[in-house]
Amino acid sequence: MPRQSQLLVAAELPDAAIAPLKALLATMELAAGQADPDNALLPFGRIEGLHVARFVILEDPSLPDRAGLTDLPPCEPVRLALVAEGDGSADALIDRFARAATPGLVQIFGHCAAGPTPADLVGWMRRHRVPAAATYANWPGRSAAQVTEEARLHAALLAVRLSHPESTPEQLWPALEKAGGAIALTPLDRPGLGERVAELCHFLLVPVLGLILAPVLLIAAPVLVVMLRRRETTDPVIAPRPSRERNRTLSAIEDHDVANQYSAIGSLKPGAFRRWLTVLILWLINWSTRHIFRRGRLARVNTIHFASWTFFDDRRRVFFASNYDGSREAYNDDFINKVAFGLNVSFSNGLGYPRTDWLIIGGARHEQDFKYYLFHHQIPTQLWYNAFRGLTTYDMARNARLRRAFEARPTGEALRRFVAEI
Prior knowledge:
four-stranded antiparallel sheet, 2 domains, alpha+beta, single chain, 47% helix
């Protein structure tokens, strides 16, 4: 199965290089913040199996929140990050990027401290790869080729349906069969026995560990709860009112399509307790997105294409990146209304997060503070590429259902449902 992988390559960026780099990335735009798929430096559209990608400069606007905290250094390095999601392994993605654009990548990453040479680009990218602590894919195994082919199938079927508005499903079927049959559909990969066994073993890891550690956790639980509550009642909330200038900057690179990008970075609350609680939570999130939330929904939210959480600076900071349908405001409201507890679990260990009770209560439910907090940590994505402009997660799911129904040669009620969904 062509499982998607996340690739994040990051390197430190000297202050003097930030402005020239932003100017260079701007030459790769089709619109503000939107990558031209055929730009001369890095033609994203020619990279096989690529779903989404971005260049983002990790300048942290929230670092002043650390003032007075002796456990956290006042400064952290600025980095340039290339973040991509695509088919196959991360190493395979690096190879495909290098084949498509070695000179351009060398020029872009050449702004970083000790950037790559053409001969060592692949090795340099692998050495600077930062594995994510947790990732989410809307539908693991749905390849870029599958998305493209199924969109073509839907377009062909829709053209037939629109040209015969008064026809019954039975009358339509011969024309639909002919039009759909003209679209080449690559057979879907099925997981082999070895992969299914490996997935089962990985799935069983959490339940088995839970059973083994249950006695220890029962004994330790009261102490851990007291430690958590003591911090929850005293940790400061840092959610300043957004500035209009920053809002204009972020708004300028959004809503050019049905989908958007989101990038944010921030510090964890000081101390080993919060740090290792975050490590555990993200490990569990990564397990659940691999085995539980793998059919188009992250809990009750079905608008996210990809998301990732990545540690930086000895786990003092977390970088979050997502690709989602709709506006930023709708994206935030969707989470607040449907899975506020999940937001609290995922992000409440962040410095300044709205106050929670027992880790899952409150927090994001303090809507104004929560939205201010998010805005405080959001950073501009300098360049974003989406291989499937105009396609939402709903469109992709519908197209996959149409493909399955078409290949089954529906009749009767199944045919009527098939035509209705076109």
